[in-house]
Amino acid sequence: MDIVYFAWVRERIGLPREQLETEATTVAELVAELKAREERYEVAFSDLSALRVAVDQKLTDFDASLAGVREVAFFPPMTGG
Amino acid sequence: MRIVVQDAPFDLGQESADFASGHRDMGAIVTFTGIVRDLPDDPMEAMEIEHYPGMTEAALAEIAQQAIDRFLLGDALVIHRYGRLVPGEMIMMVATAARHRKDAFEAAEYLMDYLKSRAPFWKREITAKGSDWVAAKDADEDALKRW
């Protein structure tokens, strides 16, 4: 599975994209797994209310299933326009 | 519908003229243009805009299609830039074509409200003091509730 990060999430984690083999079945489980890896992930994911998630490029929530998913993206609330 | 995501500048006059031509049954065209605005107390050197290639185009097309369906538009145009921009530069534009002006105006507002907080762009302001990501405002999220 590809994990992508944008804006300050990318800066805190220190990379824009990584590949991960995971047993996580939901986004929330994936976040828990990432947070357990290293402090920079713990810091980036410390306040989920400040984060948004997209699964296969569709905006969703942290309860979303990861069944068959190829790409998960984490980023702050968007500021287009 | 036309969706353009690019780093290069766009020609507002040419885009507006092209959009306005070829809609004989549409009596109203509204265009909105967003400009990089300087900060009064802390002059801005540049604004950097990051986006999510692939999702950006899909999200903008979905938002534009919703506007077309809801306001019975004849057409809609969204152009949004990314990369490094300086104050005074145009960031983005939308254009809407409808039979009557009310739908064209409302559709342009609808497009702007949605692409502010549902299109995957992130802005960073760079000043002499440093750089900061622009935080999303609660008001931007609240703006969606009226639709």
General description of the model:
The complex is a heterodimer of chains A (81) and B (147). By secondary structure, chain A is an alpha+beta fold. Chain A contains three helices and five strands. Chain A has one domain: Beta-grasp domain (Ubiquitin-like (UB roll), Roll), CATH 3.10.20. In chain A, a hairpin with a 2-residue loop joins β3 (52-55) and β4 (58-60). Chain B has 147 residues and is an alpha+beta fold. Chain B has four helices and eight strands, in the order βαββαβββαββα.
Overall 3D shape of chain B: globular
Q: Biggest sheet of chain A, in brief?
A: 5 strands, mixed
Number of strands of chain B: 8
Total helix count of chain A? 3
Q: Strands, helices and their partners?
A:
The complex is a heterodimer of chains A (81) and B (147).
Chain A (H helix, E strand, L loop, with lengths): L1 E4 L1 H7 L3 E3 L7 H11 L1 H6 L7 E4 L2 E3 L10 E5 L6
Parallel strand pairs in A: 1-5
Antiparallel strand pairs in A: 1-2, 3-4, 3-5
Chain B lengths: L1 E5 L5 H9 L7 E8 L8 E8 L3 H17 L3 E7 L1 E3 L4 E9 L2 H18 L2 E7 L2 E4 L4 H5 L5
Parallel strand pairs in B: 1-4
Antiparallel strand pairs in B: 2-6, 3-5, 3-7, 4-6, 7-8
